[in-house]
Specification:
239 residues; alpha+beta; five-stranded antiparallel sheet; five-stranded mixed beta barrel; 22% helix
Length: 239
């Protein structure tokens, strides 16, 4: 009888031990996954706060690299802290240090960051000398790191500009690619003298986009003046 009783409790203990072990295995990955997700979301929130664009037209997309499931992340009652250097924040791939004040634990996670802006791009290939119109222009989101010169956000503002070189379909149009007034163009020089507006013919000595100041020669006097490009046909002298 004693032997049977002993065997009964041994089986019961094994059942209990097995239950505890299975429960631990079932719950531990869930807790670990929660901590991994918490750290990843915290890193994304941190980057969004420090990378807020100064230009409201710029869009920022942050994709946090998944933390390896095998990495153990401890509980942090005071909250995890996040840090990335100024140099890192200017890169496409940013390394973020995650730490906890409650212990000496830390890890580095990373994120892929893209900064895009909706700007004017070519619709189809465009040859040198082409006068831009609505048929060869469109808008698209472009990574601003690809831009080296001033880009344009208003499609209508480029109507009438002339391409200086060949560009492919979908290429961002930048100020170095075109001219509203091109060197050698015959244009109108406009000047205000008191309440009067005086106009005369001239020849452009430089390329320029709207707002640029360029040298132009007055064809009547042969004098060279500095004028501001106002359109594809006119420059303005500020007296």
């Amino acid at each position: 009888m004693n032997i049977l009783k002993h065997k009964f409790f041994t089986i019961e203990q094994w059942q209990y031990a097995l239950f505890v072990m299975m429960f631990s295995i079932a719950t531990f990955p869930c807790n670990a996954a929660d901590l991994h997700e918490k750290v990843q979301q915290g890193a994304q929130k941190y980057l969004m706060s420090v990378l807020s664009p100064s230009d409201e037209d710029t869009n920022i997309d942050i994709r946090i690299v998944k933390i390896d499931d095998r990495i153990s992340i401890p509980q942090c009652p005071t909250g995890f802290q996040y840090y990335a250097s100024d140099e890192a924040l200017n890169q496409s791939y940013i390394s973020v240090r995650v730490s906890c004040q409650n212990n000496d634990w830390y890890l580095f996670t990373s994120a892929q960051v893209s900064r895009t802006k909706q700007i004017v791009v070519t619709s189809g290939a465009v040859s040198p000398g082409t006068v831009l119109g609505a048929d060869n222009l469109t808008l698209a989101d472009v990574d601003i790191r690809r831009l080296r010169y001033t880009a344009f956000t208003d499609l209508n503002s480029l109507i009438g500009a002339r391409m200086k070189r060949r560009v492919v379909d979908g290429q961002a149009i930048q100020s170095n690619m075109l001219c509203f007034v091109c060197k050698g163009d015959r244009i109108t020089i406009k000047a205000h003298i008191g309440t009067m507006a005086v106009k005369t013919a001239g020849i452009a000595e430089q390329d320029g986009v709207i707002g640029d100041t360029i040298r132009v020669t007055n064809t009547s006097s042969q004098n060279t003046v500095i004028a501001e490009v106002a359109s594809a046909k006119e420059v303005v002298v500020h007296l």
